[in-house]
Amino acid sequence: MNRFVAAERALRSAAPHHLVDALSDVLGDDWSARDVELYLADYSLTALRPASTRPERPDSLPMHDGPAGRAFGAQEPYVEKRGDDRVRLHLPVTVRGDRLGVLRLTLPSAAHAEECLAELTELAEVLGHELVVAERDTDVYLRARRSSRLTLAAEMQWQLLPGRSSTRDEYALGGQLEPAYAIFGDNFDWSADADHLMLYITNGMGEGIEASLLTQLGINALRNARRAGAPIADQAALADQAVHAQYGGAQHLSVLLLDLDLATGHLEIVDAGSPRMLLLRDRSVSAVALDAQLPLGMFEETDYRAQELLLEPGDRLVFVSDGVYSVVTPGGETYGERALARAINATRLLPAADVPGAVLRELSGHRGTPVADDDALVVCLDWFGRGGAERSHR
Fold first, then answer.
1. Residue 273, Ramachandran bin (φ over 0: left; ψ between -120 and 50: alpha; else beta)
2. pTM of the predicted model as reported, rounded to 2 decimal places
């Protein structure tokens, strides 16, 4: 049995809460690795937090600076030279484009690191897959990602998400919610099969648990209709009925529903509320004009219709909730579409996973306070075309 297979087997047979310990043992025995640590991205995407269960845990690492931050941001291994010819490897831990964190370890020499870098990089990916499975049975890694306690509403919202980023040859997705530790009702959801990507952008109504419960009902009603094979207009209608049946029109949910044909770029859209959609094409940002329809649950048995848009390979779509475009400065100036367009243009060279965080940081500067008083959601979708057409025209 070769050492890579042995490492895979050790991870898969380890208790869910002992993945890092099991990996550390096999890396030490077969790769002469030392100081093995797993760092996970925190909810606000500002720090990489240690997943160690030892009494003396290492400090958190910066998300946007330093060797670990570089590995996380570029999604490539970063080799850091240490004293006595030792090197420290920082390896991205990612599952199908969902960036979980960074695996850090020290090897005895640069020559040894060069010899086994590809193998260890692949092993970090295996660790990512095992983490996703392990989180069904332990809270160790969910706790490690928290720099402070989540509100109950935020706990419910984060558990509802499919992930924070996803990539395939045809597209790349990234999304972020703020305030990360106290989000109310904003949310996003996606699902893809061989030929279609479906995406929901939700602008929740209300505050606290009530907002979270409303979003939970709406998203699960949409998922139920989607999994039954209904087109997006019918998904909206069925979810509308579910929300109205529960709240009788007293509460409603604003949702933008999209169905993208991955082979052709044909996009069907149902605009059922307030989320906005902007298109970056050939370095020009424009708001996509949509036929405004009623939010879900406002009236009984509302009919919805889909409108169409044809995307071109290399197009970028950015979706925002009203907690982004309606934010005002202390002096009363609204953020607005012009400022949002500037922010999108300024981030055009970033990968989709990095765009939401960059836009939200720029928004924080406009607001003048680090913490939002309303939910703010940004989702970015890059479409490359079937076959992964050119990704860098911007």
1. left
2. 0.93
